[in-house]
Write a structure and sequence with these properties.
heterodimer, A: mainly beta, seven-stranded mixed sheet, 11 strands, B: mainly beta, four-stranded antiparallel sheet, 54% strand
Chain lengths: 115, 113
């Protein structure tokens, strides 16, 4: 299995500012994903973080708003830029591609509130 | 694109009883994987059970089992001898061979003592 940590666990931010969320995995993984989840709702994939190249964004998400870095196989960051109250959500880091393991593993999430 | 449908937003079960959560999916792929994940109120998602599409035998993990009907594109989860700790939101997920997952909208399970 993989143990994933996220920082910060929660934050309250002002409109117009930016927040960077960090995701650290205890194993090298081939795939890292960033999701957004409203409480009590399903997960929406924001992007796939690619090591050494630009992230692959899903429809409705753009790099200027959600820049992502992945410098190595165990670490990634997601920045939520120029925040508005609509960005208030839980942001989840997830990984897949451990050798011989099919499922995804999820981080504990970052609860973001934008005032 | 693949879609995953969980038609039961909420389900309730009496402690020690059995409950079945339904999931259907739509795909044109032949090689894929199906999962049930559990998200307790503390919000960290954990795997409950997995099924490879090429396997005909239904997966079982202790009190959790699935009914996988490939032709019908159905993948239901049965929880036997329900426990209070089973209360959570359950997500059905489809993962393509390429690695990207699609999640259903979730079913909130309440376990009554």
């Amino acid at each position: 299995s993989a143990v994933i940590s996220q920082k910060p666990s929660r934050d309250i931010c002002q409109r117009g500012t930016s927040l960077t969320i960090q995701c650290q995995v205890d194993s090298q993984v081939t795939m890292m994903f960033w999701y957004r989840q409203q409480p009590g709702q399903s997960l929406t994939l924001i992007a796939t973080a690619n090591q050494g190249s630009e992230a692959t964004y899903e429809s409705g998400f753009v790099i200027d708003k959600f820049p992502i870095s992945r410098p190595n196989l165990t670490f990634s960051t997601l920045t939520v830029s120029n925040m508005s109250p609509e960005d208030s959500s839980i942001y989840l880091c997830s990984v897949a591609g451990l050798a011989g393991v099919l499922e995804q593993f999820f981080g504990p999430g970052t609860r973001l509130t934008v005032l | 694109a693949q879609t995953v449908t969980q038609s039961q937003p909420e389900m309730s079960v009496q402690e020690a009883e059995t409950v079945t959560l339904s999931c259907t999916y739509d795909t044109s792929e032949s090689d894929y994987y199906l999962f049930w994940y559990k998200q307790p109120p503390s919000r960290q998602m954990i795997l409950v059970i997995r099924q490879e599409a090429y396997k005909q035998q239904n997966a079982t993990e202790n009190r959790f089992s699935v009914n996988f009907q490939k032709a019908a594109k159905s993948f239901s989860l049965k929880i036997s001898d329900s426990q209070l700790g089973d209360a959570a939101m359950y997500f059905c997920a489809y993962r393509s061979a390429a690695g990207k997952s699609t999640f259903g909208d979730g079913t909130t399970l309440t376990v009554k003592p």
